[in-house]
Design brief:
The complex is a heterodimer of chains A (347) and B (594). Chain A contains twelve helices and 13 strands. By secondary structure, chain A is an alpha/beta fold. Chain A has a single domain, classed as Rossmann fold, CATH 3.40.50.970. In chain A, a hairpin with a 5-residue loop joins strand 11 and strand 12. In chain A, helix 2 crosses helix 8. Chain B is of the alpha/beta class. Chain B has four domains: 196 residues, Pyruvate-ferredoxin oxidoreductase, PFOR, domain III (Pyruvate-ferredoxin Oxidoreductase, domain 3, 3-Layer(aba) Sandwich); 182 residues, Rossmann fold (3-Layer(aba) Sandwich), CATH 3.40.50.970; 72 residues, no CATH class; 111 residues, Rossmann fold (3-Layer(aba) Sandwich). Chain B has a seven-stranded mixed sheet with strand order 9-8-10-11-13-12-19, sandwiched between helices. A six-stranded mixed sheet of chain B has the order 2-3-1-4-5-6, sandwiched between helices. A five-stranded mixed sheet of chain B has the order 16-18-17-20-21, sandwiched between helices. In chain B, strand 8, helix 8 and strand 9 form a beta-alpha-beta unit. The relative contact order of chain B is 0.09. The chains are: A alpha/beta (347), B alpha/beta (594). Chains A and B meet through strand 2, helix 4, helix 6, helix 11 and helix 12 of A and strand 7, helix 7, helix 8, strand 9 and helix 9 of B. The complex binds thiamine diphosphate, iron/sulfur cluster and magnesium ion. The site of thiamine diphosphate (TPP) has 17 residues of chain A, from helix 3, helix 5 and strand 5.
Chain lengths: 347, 594
């Protein structure tokens, strides 16, 4: 290939795939919707990480956010299930085929309102999957009612005030057993990309709550999930860089000023501290720092908690390497003698 | 009523440990070669409320609940008076002496037995004697009916395998009871057990365990569940036996079990696993089915295999959680909103629990749709005699799945296109390593290529295709079973009702000279044979174990309108398994109005 041809050829990842191989259908969400930006970051991350789209299963509930899997990675199977119940569908899919890389996309209503029960139990099982909450504080698809992540005191466009406290999905996830928990902002390209790549590398549940403004129903003065509010209140804990296992570490590592988290697959999560003493491997600190942030009206972003080697639900089940979905018939049906023998018990 | 034709009812207190004694009594009769069946009528309670166990011996092989009790063992002070009041004249009652029941009626053969005194000769331990009183009544009943003591002892050994001390004590208690009643056999009058040879090769098993074994040999790969009576023992048996039968030489399980957070999640997990290609199932009862409604519609419309066992109990609501009914026919047949119609399999024996467990998994994958198996508490939790289950000879049916190699040849595929004319599309499994493998599964309107569509023609075409698919499944589901021919009066039943119907037909013939034919429905949507049966009979009694005659209502929805006047609903729901006498009286009364 000539220099010129090489320059003109699209950039490819370690599988030889181009970014175009990770595209989906054209979005039908509103222009400027935070969810669209997240879709871009997601497909970027999978491209950069060199994950074959065929290995990925995209799962979602119902909502504008839950529609978004149609708009990226069209070569991945997808399942747009029912409202608030994606976690159970994902659990079944991962158990059926443990080689799938499951990516769940949900909304704040889908997760924290109708789906809180299944969400909690998914976190508790630490099922290997990525779980994204595209969090805009409202039900976009049903035209802007408050969801359970809306902050107390925030207002709808109509002036209606939310009187109830917000559910913090990150605090819940940490408490319940998810092993990688972070919060980010659809507008923070660099932070979100690094966190998504780390989530891809993680082996248990990676739960990311991503503030994702709804430009149509919740981007006004009085909203705490607007672009404007995030501009003033985003409080990053650290600057994040991610070094995948297949790349040389060339970033300089200054002990003391940074935290280096070695992920289970050998990749590294580098967190350059912006806060003196924050270490995302300290669960109690994570929870107290989140609580503090609520008091101060700040939106704490970054990797809040990570336990790279925590046992996952699959570890408990004694499953074979080969997916249950494709086990051969002789593994699924015991032989004739086995039936005769077991029936003897009932004679 | 007489030789090898009697029913025994044992009335005790829940939690008093009488199950073992009742199982021994039942097994002793079984070992004597006498056809026998047992039914546990228990409360929704762990300990303290009254509970009854009925054992029926029938030389003719009738296993339905017998309405009349021939011999009552009254051990429970709380229920004793009512139990005695309900007996037919001439019945035998064996009672715990302090209950003083002899004076209640003078038309019974009553025998007071000092159980405490008898047990005192076996042990001084108060806790043990509470349990051993039960085995003492087994000894007494054995003596009265002529059940061989050696068979009782053999049954005790079987009941407590490897527990030498327990066997010794229980045998001693049974012997003491037996000795006490020596010379009192006259009290039982005509009731007598005599050795026969009807049980050679038979097994005794409950329907839930049979279903579990059926799933294990039917190739299930995943079960998600949430405990609920009367289905819990199905999944528990599944876990128990799968751990014995489905662990590979590598020590790895060829199945996954998840105790979900509720039935909604259990259904979601089954749907997720079915989508990803694993043969997945759940077992529940009415309240769980109600919660699964939204997922049932999704699986129907997105065309995902799922198997849901509904071991029915009495509803609505929490109803009678420990009593039997068949009241979920209508709710499952069309479960969920919009246009749905589900495949139902309705087992009528423990053997069918076994075979249908595998068939359900096959049908779900073949037709890419939820399959409900409607068992009931009577079938699932009571023990039944059966021939040993046949090993499934047909290979697992994994349905239409396109492999990577097939895609290589085809180049692309359309998930919901009816390429074979049977309404069943080809699917790919997530993870299939081909760039054209993926499709987008959704509960929203879609076209043949699974793309979002709100077009009226797409909607209509798709839904009509699914209707054709489900209709086509009728030929692949278990066909109805016909007994009798040429009669003018027909009886239609489903599930466990068949046992009462079969006995009732004999009663109607003997007592009324009325010939009947019987068609036992085993699946929904109904096979053509159902319509033909109704068309061939002047009057068809439709037997139901629910208030509103749901099998009859389903027939009304599905049969040609000109046949409907022939249908005569016979619906009963008391929480007790249907008995033949109630049926016979009702049908005879309607056939010969006086
Ligand atoms: C059982 C059920 N109830 C209600 C709805 C209506 N509904 C659709 S989306 C939605 C809320 C979605 O909110 P969220 O998850 O925050 O997603 P967003 O649209 O904001 O991205 C609701 C209530 C539904 N689809 N299903
Ligand atoms: S309504 Fe809100 S959440 Fe939905 S697409 Fe529009 S901006 Fe996004
Ligand atoms: Mg929302």
């Amino acid at each position: 290939m000539s220099e010129a041809a090489r320059a003109a050829a699209p950039r490819t990842n370690r599988l030889g795939l181009a970014l175009a191989d990770y595209k989906g259908a054209k979005t039908t969400l509103c222009a400027g919707c935070g969810h669209n930006a997240i879709s871009e970051r997601v497909l970027d991350a999978f491209f950069e990480m060199g994950i074959a789209p065929e290995r990925v299963a995209k799962l979602s509930g119902i909502g504008c956010s839950s529609k978004s899997p149609a708009y990226f990675m069209g070569r991945s199977h997808a399942f747009n299930a029912v409202h608030g119940r994606m976690p159970s569908v994902a659990t079944g899919a991962v158990l059926a085929n443990r080689r799938l890389l499951a990516l769940g996309v949900s909304g704040d209503g889908d997760t924290a309102s109708i789906g809180l029960g299944q969400f909690g139990h998914l976190m508790r099982r630490n099922l290997p999957m990525i779980y994204l909450v595209e969090d805009n504080g409202v039900y976009g698809l049903t035209k802007g009612q408050f969801s359970a992540t809306a902050d107390a005191g925030s207002t709808l466009k109509t002036g209606v005030v939310n009187e109830l406290p917000a559910i913090d999905t990150c605090a819940l996830a940490i408490q319940l057993g998810a092993s990688f928990v972070g919060r980010s902002f659809s507008g923070d390209k660099k932070q979100l990309s690094a966190m998504l790549k780390a989530a891809v590398a993680h082996r248990g549940t990676a739960m990311l709550d991503v503030i994702s403004p709804c430009v149509t129903f919740n981007d006004h003065q009085g909203s705490t999930k607007s672009y404007g509010y995030m501009k003033d209140h985003d409080e990053p804990l650290h600057e994040i860089s991610f070094v995948p296992s297949f790349e040389e570490i060339d970033v300089e590592y200054a002990a003391g000023a940074s935290v280096d988290v070695r992920m289970h697959d050998g990749s590294h999560l580098r967190l350059r501290k912006l806060e003196e003493d924050y270490d995302p491997r300290d669960k109690a600190r994570a929870l107290s720092r989140i609580a503090e942030s609520h008091g101060r009206g700040e939106v704490l972003t970054g990797v809040l908690w990570v336990d790279p080697d925590a046992p996952t639900f699959l570890d408990l089940l004694e499953l074979p390497e080969e997916p249950l979905a494709t086990l051969p018939a002789e593994r699924l049906r015991p032989p004739r003698e086995a039936l005769a023998a077991v029936l003897e018990e009932f004679r | 009523m007489g030789v090898n034709d009697f029913s025994i009812q044992v009335a005790t207190v829940n939690g008093s440990g009488s199950q073992s004694a009742n199982a021994v009594l039942l097994r002793s009769l079984f070992q004597m070669g006498i056809p026998v069946s047992g039914k546990n009528l228990f409360p929704s309670n762990i300990a303290g409320l009254p509970t009854w166990y009925t054992i029926r011996a029938s030389a003719e092989g009738f296993v339905a609940r017998k309405k009349e009790v021939d011999l009552l063992v009254a051990m429970n002070a709380e229920s004793a008076r009512e139990d005695v009041a309900g007996l037919r004249p001439g019945a035998v009652v064996v009672y715990d002496e302090p209950l003083g029941l002899a004076s209640l009626r003078d038309d019974l053969a009553a025998l007071g037995v000092p159980f405490d005194a008898i047990v005192r000769t076996v042990t001084g331990d108060a806790r043990l004697s509470k349990l051993l009183r039960n085995m003492a009544y087994v000894g007494v009943v054995a003596q009265l009916l002529g059940i061989e003591l050696a068979e009782v002892e053999r049954a005790i050994e079987r009941q407590f395998p490897g527990k030498k001390k327990a066997v010794e004590l229980n045998v001693a208690a049974a012997r003491a009871g037996h000795a006490h009643a020596a010379g009192k056999r006259f009290a039982a009058g005509a009731l007598r057990a005599e050795r026969m040879d009807a049980n050679r090769g038979k097994i005794v098993i409950d329907g839930n365990t049979a279903a579990a074994l059926g799933a294990i040999f039917g190739g299930f790969a995943m079960v998600a569940w949430y405990p609920i009576t009367p289905s819990s023992s199905l999944t528990e048996a599944l876990i128990h036996y799968a751990r014995k039968l489905r662990i590979g030489p590598d020590g790895k399980a060829s199945f996954a079990v998840v105790q979900a957070e509720d039935e909604l999640a259990a259904a979601g997990m089954v749907v997720g696993a079915g989508w990803a290609g694993a043969r997945a199932m759940t077992a529940t009862s009415g309240p769980g089915v109600s919660l699964m409604s939204e997922f049932a519609g999704l699986a129907y419309f997105a065309e995902i295999p799922a198997v849901i066992w509904d071991v029915q109990r009495v509803g609505p609501s929490t109803g009678l959680p420990t009593r039997t009914a068949q009241g979920d026919l209508l709710s499952t047949a069309y479960l969920s909103h919009g246009d749905t119609r589900h495949l139902l399999l309705i087992p009528g024996s423990v053997e069918e629990c076994f075979t249908m467990a595998g068939q359900a998994l096959d049908l779900a994958e073949r037709f890419q749709t939820p399959v409900f198996v409607l068992s009931d508490l009577d079938l699932g939790m009571n023990v039944w005699m059966s021939d040993p289950f046949p090993y499934p000879e047909r290979p697992l049916d994994r349905g239409k799945v396109l492999s990577r190699e097939a895609l290589e040849k085809l180049g692309s595929f359309a998930r919901y296109a009816d390429v074979d004319g049977d309404g069943v599309g080809w699917r790919t499994l997530p993870g299939t390593d081909h760039p054209a493998a993926a499709y987008f599964t959704r509960g929203t309107g879609h076209d043949e290529r699974a793309r979002y569509s709100e077009r009226p023609d797409d909607w209509e075409k798709n839904l009509q295709r699914i209707a054709r698919k489900i209709d086509g499944a009728r030929a692949a589901t278990p066909q109805p079973e016909l007994s009798g021919s040429g009669a003018r009066v027909g009886i239609l039943s489903a599930g466990t009702s068949r046992w009462a119907v079969e006995e009732s037909r004999v009663q109607l013939r003997r007592e009324q000279g009325l010939e009947t034919d019987h068609l036992r429905v085993r699946a929904f949507p109904f096979a053509d044979a159902v319509r033909e049966f109704v068309a061939a009979h002047d009057r068809v009694y439709v037997v139901d174990q629910n208030r509103d005659g749901q099998l009859g209502q389903l027939l009304r929805l599905e049969l040609p309108v000109e046949l409907l006047p022939r249908l005569r609903p016979v619906a009963h729901v008391t929480g007790l398994p249907l008995d033949a006498r109630s049926l016979t009286d009702e049908i005879a009364g309607r056939e010969n109005p006086s």
